[in-house]
């Protein structure tokens, strides 16, 4: 039984190390990704702070940082819970090993004492030679030999148990250190969240002092969005008519049909239209981050990114329109069969109408928005249907 237990301990330590490594690697990989995202947000915020006035963009970046910070805390908490489970498993195994060791030591002590009482070699010989037959003498001889062998095996088992206990204690020490370090990170992250929330509250308070002026600008923005959506719907209808369609569906050439099918197959896999950034306003109806009574309807997603960032095509297609829209600067529309992708707020254009573009090809450069960074409004349409672009992009 003791041999089996020690074999099981070796198996446990191997499987523990493997599963622990796998689980911790997954958690660390996620944490590293979140840390990179937070580092990028810090750069955006640092740039936004150069504008001394309070801006919606600052609030938006801080809110995103808080969201990512909470993700980090949850991940770190999962790590602590996992470590607690491993610590309990190790402590349970350690307790069993210590019980086995104590029992083996007690048994070995008794055996040594009994051997000591019969330590006289002549007594053993007399006991063997006093046998009534050769078979009995041989049996008594084998008995003393087996006692000696068993004693050696007991010593080996005690040594193996000591080795197992050393390994378990080493793992426990490692786990306890990791748990302590992770708990410290959680505390630090919580303190950081409090500081960031206080900073956001300060900006919000300043913005509310300018409520009348900001609401006026928001009303203009809402009207511009509605006007742009209507212009886009008209443009889509005109293009459908030009294609020879008798309804609102764009009539495809065989080549366009292939592109359209490929685009559809890549739902959830398309590259982002900028190298880095975050979704500061989602698709559909959004509550304003400062003025909660205001609701903004977004026909796409708004991505906050670095100042003057390059914009890239998310899929191969043909540039069907380049136009200037007040409040949105230059807008580029790329057709991918039945699908359209729309890129707004470009200050420079690298392509022209009729050009064929490839995946990740640069099509323009973004204007600098209020807050000292840049924002891109990105839309996806299928004929006259307005789609949620985030569902088409690869998860970031």
TrEMBL record:
Residue ranges constituting the M23ase beta-sheet core domain according to the UniProt record: 298-389
Keyword tags: Coiled coil, Signal
Highest taxon in the source lineage: Bacteria
One Gene Ontology molecular-function label: metalloendopeptidase activity
Transmembrane segments annotated in the record for this chain: none
Coiled-coil ranges from the UniProt annotation: 24-51, 190-235
PANTHER family per UniProt: L-ALA--D-GLU ENDOPEPTIDASE (PTHR21666:SF289), PEPTIDASE-RELATED (PTHR21666)
Protein name: Septal ring factor EnvC (AmiA/AmiB activator)
Organism from which the protein derives: Butyricimonas faecihominis
């Amino acid at each position: 039984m003791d041999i089996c237990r020690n074999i099981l301990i070796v198996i446990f330590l191997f499987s523990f190390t493997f599963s622990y490594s796998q689980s911790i690697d997954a958690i660390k990989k996620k944490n590293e990704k979140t840390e990179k995202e937070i580092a990028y947000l810090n750069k955006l915020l640092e740039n936004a702070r150069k504008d001394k006035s309070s801006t919606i963009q600052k609030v938006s970046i801080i809110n995103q940082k808080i969201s990512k910070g909470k993700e980090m805390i949850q991940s770190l908490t999962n790590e602590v819970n996992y470590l607690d489970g491993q610590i309990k498993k190790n402590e349970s195994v350690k307790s069993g090993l210590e019980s086995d060791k104590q029992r083996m030591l007690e048994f070995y002590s008794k055996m040594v004492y009994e051997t000591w009482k019969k330590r006289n070699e002549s007594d053993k010989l007399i006991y063997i030679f006093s046998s009534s037959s050769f078979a009995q003498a041989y049996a008594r001889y084998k008995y003393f030999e087996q006692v000696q062998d068993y004693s050696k095996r007991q010593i080996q088992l005690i040594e193996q148990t000591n080795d197992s206990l050393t390994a378990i204690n080493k793992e426990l020490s490692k786990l306890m250190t990791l748990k302590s370090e992770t708990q410290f990170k959680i505390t630090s992250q919580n303190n950081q969240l409090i500081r960031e929330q206080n900073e956001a509250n300060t900006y919000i308070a300043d913005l509310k002092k300018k409520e009348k002026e900001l609401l006026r600008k928001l009303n203009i923005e809402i009207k511009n969005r509605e006007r742009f959506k209507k212009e886009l719907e008209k443009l889509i209808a005109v293009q459908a008519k030009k294609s020879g369609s008798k309804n609102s569906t764009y009539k495809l050439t065989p080549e366009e049909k292939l592109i359209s099918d490929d685009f559809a197959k890549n739902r959830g896999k398309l590259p982002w239209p900028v190298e880095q950034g975050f979704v500061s306003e989602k698709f559909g109806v959004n509550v304003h981050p400062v003025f909660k009574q205001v609701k903004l309807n977004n026909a796409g997603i708004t991505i906050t990114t670095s100042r003057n960032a390059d914009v890239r095509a998310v899929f191969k297609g043909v540039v069907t329109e380049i136009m200037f829209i007040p409040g949105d600067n230059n807008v580029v529309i790329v057709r991918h069969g039945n699908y359209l992708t729309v890129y707004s707020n470009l200050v420079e254009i690298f392509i022209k109408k009729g050009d064929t573009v490839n995946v990740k090809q640069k099509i323009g450069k973004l204007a600098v928005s209020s807050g000292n960074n840049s924002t891109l409004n990105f839309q996806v349409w299928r004929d006259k249907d307005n789609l949620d672009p985030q569902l088409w992009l690869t998860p970031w």
